[in-house]
Batch of 2 targets.
Target 1
Amino acid sequence: MPANLNRQHSPEGDDILTQNALLKMEHIHKRFPGVYALRDVQLELLPGEVHAILGENGAGKSTLIKILGGIYTKEKGEIYIDGQEVNISSVDDARAAGVSVIHQELVLVPYLSIAENIFLGREPKKKSGLLDRDRMIREAKKALADFGLSLSPETVIADLNIAQQQMVEIVKAISFNAKIIVMDEPTSSLADKEVEVLFESVRRLTARGIGIIYISHRMSELGQIADRVTVMRDGEYVGTKVVKDVTTDELITMMVGRSLSRYYTRTFNECTENVLEVKGLCSNKVHDVNFDLKKGEILGFAGLIGAGRSETMKAIFGIDKVTAGSVLLNGQELRGKKTKEIMQFGIGLVPEDRRAEGIFPEMSIKFNITLKVLQEFMKGAHVDYPKEDSISDAFTSRLAVKAPSSETPIRSLSGGNQQKVIFGSWLAMNPKVIILDEPTRGIDVGAKSEIYTIMNELAREGVSIIMVSSDLPEVLNMSDRIAVMSGGTITAILDRTEATQEKIMQNAVQY
Amino acid sequence: MLNTMSTPAKLLGSTKAYLKRNTGILIGLLAICVIITINSKSFLSQDNIMNVLRQISTNMYLASAMTMVLIAGGIDLSVGSVIALTGVISGTLVMAGIPIPLVIIICLAIGGVCGSVNGFIISRTTLPPFIVTFSMMSILRGATYVYTGGTTVRVDNRTFINLGTGYLAGIPLPVLYLLVVLVVVFIILNKTRLGRHIYAIGGNQKAAEFSGISVRGVRMFVYVFSGVMGSLAGMVLCARSYSGNPVAGNGAEMDAIAAVVLGGASMAGGYGYIGGTMIGALIIGLLNNGLNLMRIDSYWQIILKGVVILVAVYVDYVKNLKKNKSN
């Protein structure tokens, strides 16, 4: 919390701080054809403050941010920066006003260097009109060094990992003299260690008096990084709280408008019968992976990014080649089989990267749900359309997918609903074992809780689940046992009764 | 499938969807017809219509296959050269006295082999389809010249010629082959698992792999089919023009691609319909025919064709822009 603040409590109990606000957005209205996207929303940011915005998907967070960033224009309302009313109607306006937005999908050009990306669109020129490469590199180097980064400005973006790319985005934002930096889900694709690095740089920014608007679905992060939090719901302002004074439960209640009595719904049962046995599994990316999976069990896979969790799953599922070891499903060897055959044995995999590996964006919800079970309603040149509809309807309703119709292209759904459709498409093939790789990444609280409920139901029905997740509370609360991976192999398998955050981390950093 | 209660309703529904999806190019097609009719009395004569259909049919064979290739996220530039190669081969084989059914089988097989080479390389490597089929286009065209020494192969076998020029019940034979091709492609794309898989791999190849779809197999299929359609076009053209010409089919792949894209398919894959391609090919065919009937200078015809295609695609683009905005 910045030290220069005096706190006042508004009559509603909201923590509104009025002195020398860096940014004030008031009475913001925005309508899209037929719907109110924002109705009388407010937001206030102080110099050196990290201000989180919380809300389910569709709550209006990104609309608000897009108005601030000049992508949308507001219908009504005022925006003040440093006490001056500003008119933001384009991205350039926003930039000139000192606002910089770091989007969830990074927008760096992959095959240009760091320096070229930082100066993209405003490259320094020599008198001759040619590019002043030396100056560009010199200044980029200085900007990186100022920020404590030892990267060479000539490194190509494609060679950086996601965390490093984010750092470059931040440096780029500062180089525009940004006073306000908006970060949209900055940690959604970072491992815990990288998140630490990001937080470090956020603190460095706030120390300079820069205000950060921080959007995240990860409630656990707020305590570590945010000073205040503004909650939105259905396009309306719900309230602003000082993070230290508010509990997660209270925030969830504010977000969903009701209390999620039990967020992680899990009823544990005794699991004894072995379903899947993996022995000495090796691929190009993992080695000597050993574990078993019992009927009706949820086996969590924890570890840092790059530990080999997703790669283990890809090897089991026949995507990556298995070089040694065996994978036994009810005693039957699956090693060397194709993905299609492995699916027929009853294994499903909901992949890690929903957009890249999961959805067929232009196609309908129906197409996406039924693609893996076409044989149930298509034979030769005959299509049983009613059957197709009934399969599609069954799983959209089981997973409570919110969409206008089953013909809606999946790309127009929210992340949570897309994830539910993908989940449904795997359930449609009635799997005995289902591997969920980061099942709740980047989706809102409501959808998360629904996915947990379905996982619990599946486990009760005797389906075995492998859940790869970087969300430790999720792993700890949902799993019967937790396998921890590090350096391409399993370093520990912990029972839920003995597992703690510390034990998992100890084993995750072994190599 | 043919549920008596719902069939008319369903038919009406899909007709509506078809009209809605293709409004832009249907209006364009209509406009072209009206303009030509006003300017030329002979346009609407039965002779001319049959003539146009026969001319269009070779492009349609290619475009039908190209629809699947484009939906699957690929492109096939080699089909024009397949036309030339199979044209001259069919000509020489017929003249050498080989039985015509055998000639047809051999030529279709040659087209299939050319396509399978494309398919094999594209599905086993990450080489871009554009480059692979571009190279194949050059190789096959060169091979055709080497084979004939650059000369045209004359054909005077009446039976063979009849396959390209004859009629059945007043309909030109090539148009009848076309109907078969269209039905086959329609069924594949709309009624079979293979069709769904074609859309899937073009829509998101990675996700298709994770869904257990044989990406290689599907790729192989579309390129082989494209090669076979190229050889069908090659033989029909040879029979129709009484000769196998090594220059035949030059640029035919571009007309086919233009027809598919006019028909609303995405060059990026994952989207496209055979019904749209049909209209696209009609527009291109009518342009050629109509501009001739209207006695427009042939050099200007080339320019006009480019302009019309550009305008049509632009109108479509504006339409999509509006649609995306209202979403």
Target 2
Amino acid sequence: MKYTPSGPGEYAELLQAIGVERFEDLLEGVPEKLRLEGALDLPGGMSEPEVRAVVEKLAARNRNRSQSVCFAGAGAYDHFVPAAIDTIVSRSEFTTAYTPYQSEVSQGTLQVIYEFQSLVAELMGLEVANASLYDGAHAVAEAVLLAHAVRGVDRALVSAGLHPHARRVLDTYAAGLGLEIVTVPLGADGRTDAAALTELLAEPASAVVFAHPTFSGCLEDPARLTGIVHDTGAGKPPLVIGSVYPLSLGLLAPPGEWGADVAVAEGQSLGLPLSFGGPYLGLFACRSEYLRRLPGRLIGRTLDRDGRESFVLTMQTREQHIRRAKATSNICTNQGLCATWGTVYMSLLGPEGLREVAEQCHARAHYLAGLLTAVPGVELTWPDTPFFNEFTLNLPVDPGELLARLDGVGFLGGVDPHRFEPTIPGDLIVAVTEQRTRAEMDAFARAFEEAVTGGFKP
Amino acid sequence: MSDTPQPLTAAERAARNARSPWLTAPEPLAIELSRAGRRGLPLPALDVPEADPVSEGLARSRAPHWPEMSESEVVRHFTRLSTRNHHVDKNLYPLGSCTMKYNPKVNEVMARLPGLVDLHPLQHDTGVQGALALMWELERLLAAISGFAAVSLQPAAGAQGELTGLMTIRACHEAAGEGESRKRVLLPDSAHGTNPASVTLNGWVTEEIASGSDGLIDLEALRDGLGSDVACLMITNPNTLGLFESSIETVCELVHEAGGLVYMDGANLNALMGIVQPGRIGVDVMHFNLHKTFSTPHGGGGPGAGPIGVTERLEPFLPVPRIEREASTEAPDGWAYRTVWDRPQSIGKVQGFFGNFGVLVRAYTYIRALGPEGLADATRGAVINANYLLSRVGDAYHLPHPGPCMHEFVLSGCDQKSACGVNTTDIAKRLLDFGFHAPTVYFPLIVPEALMTEPTETETRETLDEFAEALLQIAREAKEDPDLVHEAPHTTPVRRPDEARAAKHPDLRWRA
């Protein structure tokens, strides 16, 4: 297969027009001895039907959602993806454009991202949002870097309730800058230990990061935590960075309402497919006082020469192509099409739809939790702590074996937290979206009970 | 001259805009289209009991100010917005160093296969053997193209690939006990802006080395810059002038002799496939831009993917998880794939899960379809097209570094500016009137009034000729009717939005 329009005869004509005889004459700058002899050592090319067969065969080796009912979450969720989204994001006008450098011929992308920033800022209850980051984990890292730049202290406190992958990405980013990342432990209720936080705040820090809900599904008391941080001793308090689950904000108070300085989120739940972990969508919003330190692209509304409303990339003096080594981050390309994805989803949903999706997730998860905890030996790890749509169970059996058994009967039964860290409490994290019907949950609970009482001990 | 766009007077333009909804009608914001009570996504009824409401302290007090729209209105709104974009499927998009080539449609179909798009990233390895196999194979395909020993697919974009590559270099120096002493990074003054920004984020400092008058790295300046405190050199090859760094082998030797490593920015790999393998000429680590070289769509600014290739020496430091395989009599292809986390020297993670998997599927499909001949043909076409276009327009504009070029070239509008008062922005805006996107402008920084032009291999001679004619006509217009160019564009939905105003009075969102 090749996608070049010119045939061999045409190349010869072009070479002649250029004034050289052979293609190799154009490579005069490439020393002969550096040139590859012979062809690349790759499998031979294929026609379109052949390559489809190859990829389809790989796809057939996976167990996809239509083959198993998904109760797995832990950072990626099986929410409903309306057909209208793919119709829009498949349009070449969005798919095959690039960063809107020439605003006159990019008003479509620019206005979409302006709307995205508006929707995200409103969702988070904060003043500004950027045009997106790579994913939720990356957004956490960039938020801590922003706080570091603002406060100038090489220390950040991070709740143990943050997603372990986000923590790992943060650690990786922080290592280069020599930032000390200190863990704030969880209390017996699965929430950030307020007393430990207060103690750790005795030393200066740039940021305090916590997740709401936590990785294990527990709802924090975010206003209280924020208050503790902001009331800290002398000098300027650390920035409060809240990592949230976007769809939970149909029910739960957004970071702006609890007084957070920065809000970040994994935006996959906003209409993006699971896609084996990417491409996803990093959401980033903050108070306007940090605008000049914001990472990534920003779109602004302005007027054109004829006084018409129009949109442009703006405040680019923060960015690498202008500021180079002094840029607020190194980002160039972000997740434009994924942001478009989220924008269409949020527009379809509207405020009422957001509330209803959140309520349904919440109600369905509580229904399932009731069924599963009726199984002898199974209990909520934190029975008195509220949760949104994800909860952690203690099991009388080995979670890995339980998941394998459930997999055998068509259920992706949850996530074993120990695959991340052996120290994370509980045995199984179960997530429920608005998509899970009562019939699916009843069938799952039966399979779950059979597998648990089938008797395999850890 | 019949197809020459004729400029309109302001009055004519206003009159036309008033009666021509086709080209220039503005689209309201979604929030302005909102009507109370409309919904675009009805849900099935709740078939379980309602849960107790969350406690008052946790509950949201005010709903977000989001639009209320029906599905049909949402689809129309975004469809109308889409018509205000230029895009590759419509016409040439010659942004230099961005490789805006045609994106084959089969790649889109493959990325949407339920067996690939409906996979949860935390499924057990046994349920995602095909996905792991695809990634394992893609790593080997990229390694075979570039000549590196190992590849990580995790970085989400070129800039993140740069940062990840620099992190592996830092880890390597740290393992050798030189982490504290090597913190200086040399890079040519023609480098992409992401290079120095990534250096800073890695906790290092940048030192620029001036390019020679031939546009290539100056070996003397390099020698002067090297020392026992140098962590690495970052180099782009071909560089941002579209020139192959012909002394690359010597460059790598000098850096290695000084104990440093060589990072190559692979943004311009489209010029090298089947010709040079960076991993075999002394480069230690390079990032790939799958959305450039391997034709995954640019999406209006992402998602991309920025895998890195490294030498054997740097392999232990790659991000986790790695993907490995072992022989299995049960597996359909004889191999069982698994994710491996136990890599004590790894730098850690740079992305939440495995990387931008959907982008990887597209690149895999592209590489498998093209094979070695197709990839070599792509590079051949890219270099020939760039040189052909250069041969058509090189006399009308200043050409700081004469050809032949590789896959792109840089013109300068400095003659037009000094003789006619027409600058590169004017030229770029005038190009829009001809139905083309403009080249990358004012970059690289070492060329004043730069027009960095990369046509790619997927353009026909006819399109290149049309584009060349446009550039030639603009050069004439600059002399004969400079106001026409100054006032450009004349035919776009909006004209020269006021960027200074946007930056001074930030309006970044709608408000209630």
